[in-house]
Write a structure and sequence with these properties.
mainly alpha
Length: 73
């Protein structure tokens, strides 16, 4: 499968292309396909998370700081 073969789907309306990165993530192993997606990432923002997945544990840190204010008496 090539970028050119999928281009119509990749450029479809957001509801159609939303799940394409999960279905075709293996195609990113093909350097040509990946380079084509990266070169047009503004047209394919849904691929961002597949191309740059969050690091494990990122964003799940708990903070011990609280910002509570005491109510006036």
């Amino acid at each position: 499968m090539t970028y050119a073969a999928l281009q119509h789907w990749l450029a479809a309306e957001p509801a159609v292309r939303r799940d394409l990165p999960l279905q075709f993530a293996d195609l990113l192993q093909d350097r040509s396909f990946k380079d084509s997606v990266v070169a047009r990432i503004t047209q394919h923002p849904e691929w961002e998370q597949v191309l740059k997945p969050p690091r494990p544990g990122a964003g799940s840190r708990k903070t011990t700081e609280t910002h509570e204010t005491e109510a006036p008496r």
